[in-house]
């Protein structure tokens, strides 16, 4: 895998509109064109828009090994909306999938040069992502870079999509986001063995990414998904990129406040160790089932983390073995943070048979760390 200092897309620079509105708008265009042709006395064959005819020929072209066949894709209901796109349930070639759609230049909001640049950068990112294969990384199924001939099969029939649409297809994970799972268990907390297992899933996934020279850059519990067996998988590579050989080539505030390493917040050069810092925050969050810095504003968090070495408060009942992992991972000096494969070894060495779970705040009448009934 070639290391490069460019060739990545900043998903936080993509200006998106509601997919539902896009679908309705473009479907109306197709229906209007079809109706006009019928009014002109054309037959059913003539009523097919020229783009559809061209699209049929285009589908015969040789695809990249990561490109999906739109004919095999069925898009269903919306399951998430966000800054970076609209995610739908779907089926691809008989497999349950999640479908993320991005529109890079709907109705002239971007120049052709900007769209071409975004498409080229995203193509490089996809070329890297589709080669990733690990049980703790969400499986990438495929993507399309968009064209004027693209059509998608929906439950209501075939719809012509915007020419700048990008479609990303990944495996569907029914357990939802780790963040939601922690919120559900915020009162009772998680059993210690569950805490360590989730932490190991995340650590192993990040260790694998780093071995492939991939820096995620937005490690947080919202970007981790659970399958039906509660196995956790890293998702959302919207701002991930190949690690640069020179750390000076990786700068800028990329990530989510509360999880961002001091060097990233400060706009300094950084490397994969920014993911290690974020992992430390996630580990605290998994153990406590709570949010870091809930009472501070964004500006207060930034200032305190960088200038006052602020970190989440580790509960007194937290086992030293786990607390030590947190402290080492969120060290202010990136060079002092462990590599993720070392973090995996530290977590694997923790004995979960004797308890060590978090004490719920409404049950302060004695230590509950050794009770086996704690957590799900």
Largest sheet: 7 strands, mixed
Q: How many strands in all?
A: 12
Q: What is the structural class? A: alpha+beta
**How many DSSP H or I helices?**
10
Biggest sheet strand order reads 4-7-3-2-1-5-6
Order of helices and strands: HHEEEHEEEEEHHEEEEHHHHH
Whole-angstrom Rg: 23 Å
Roughly what fraction of the amino acids lie in strands?
Answer: 15-25%
Average pLDDT over all residues: 75
* Low-pLDDT residue spans: 1-20, 42-59, 239-254, 365-376
Oligomer: single chain
Shape: globular
The rounded distance between the terminal residues' Cα atoms is: 41 Å
- Helix proportion range: 25-40%
Domain Protein kinase: 73-350
GO cellular component, one term: plasma membrane
Enzyme class: transferase
GO molecular function: ATP binding; protein serine/threonine kinase activity; protein tyrosine kinase activity
Protein architecture, described:
- By secondary structure, this protein is an alpha+beta fold.
- Helix content is 33%, strand content 16%.
- It has ten helices and twelve strands.
- The strands form three sheets. It has a seven-stranded mixed sheet, with helices on one face. The chain has a three-stranded antiparallel sheet with strand order 8-10-11.
- α7 (273-288) runs antiparallel to α9.
- The two termini are 41 Å apart.
- Mean pLDDT is 75; it is low at 1-20, 42-59, 239-254 and 365-376.
- It catalyses: L-seryl-[protein] + ATP = O-phospho-L-seryl-[protein] + ADP + H(+); L-threonyl-[protein] + ATP = O-phospho-L-threonyl-[protein] + ADP + H(+).
- Its EC number is 2.7.11.1.
- GO terms for molecular function: ATP binding; protein serine/threonine kinase activity; protein tyrosine kinase activity.
């Amino acid at each position: 895998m070639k290391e490069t200092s460019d060739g990545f897309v900043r998903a936080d620079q993509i200006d998106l509109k509601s997919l539902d509105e896009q679908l309705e708008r473009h479907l109306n265009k197709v229906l209007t064109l079809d109706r006009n042709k019928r009014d002109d006395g054309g037959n059913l064959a003539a009523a097919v828009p020229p783009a559809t005819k061209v699209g049929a020929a285009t589908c015969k072209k040789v695809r990249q090994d990561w490109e999906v066949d739109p004919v095999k894709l069925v898009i269903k209901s919306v399951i998430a909306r966000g800054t970076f796109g609209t995610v739908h349930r779907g089926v691809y070639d008989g497999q349950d999938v999640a479908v993320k759609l991005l529109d890079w230049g709907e109705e002239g909001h971007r120049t052709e040069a900007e769209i071409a640049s975004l498409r080229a950068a995203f193509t490089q990112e996809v070329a890297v992502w589709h080669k990733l294969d690990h049980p703790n990384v969400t499986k990438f199924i495929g993507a399309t870079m968009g064209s004027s001939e693209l059509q998608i099969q929906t439950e209501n029939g075939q719809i012509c999509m915007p020419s700048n649409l990008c479609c990303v297809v990944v495996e569907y994970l029914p357990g939802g986001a780790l963040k939601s799972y922690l919120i559900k268990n915020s009162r009772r907390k998680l059993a210690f063995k569950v805490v360590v297992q989730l932490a190991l899933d995340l650590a192993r996934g990040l260790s694998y990414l780093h071995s492939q020279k991939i820096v995620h850059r937005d490690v947080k519990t919202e970007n981790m998904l659970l399958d039906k067996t509660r196995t956790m998988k890293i998702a959302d590579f919207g701002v991930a990129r190949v690690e640069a050989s020179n750390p000076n080539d990786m700068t800028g505030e990329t990530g989510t406040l509360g999880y961002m390493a001091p060097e990233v917040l400060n706009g300094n050069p950084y490397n994969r160790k920014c993911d290690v810092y974020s992992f430390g925050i996630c580990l605290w969050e998994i153990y406590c089932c709570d949010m870091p810095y809930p009472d501070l504003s964004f500006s207060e968090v930034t200032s305190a983390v960088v200038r006052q070495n602020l970190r989440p408060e580790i509960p007194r009942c937290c086992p030293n073995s786990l607390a030590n992992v947190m402290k080492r991972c969120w060290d202010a000096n990136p060079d002092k943070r462990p590599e993720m494969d070392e973090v995996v070894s530290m977590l694997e060495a923790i004995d979960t048979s004797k308890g060590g779970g978090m004490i719920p705040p409404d049950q302060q009448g004695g230590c509950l760390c050794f009770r086996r009934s704690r957590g799900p």
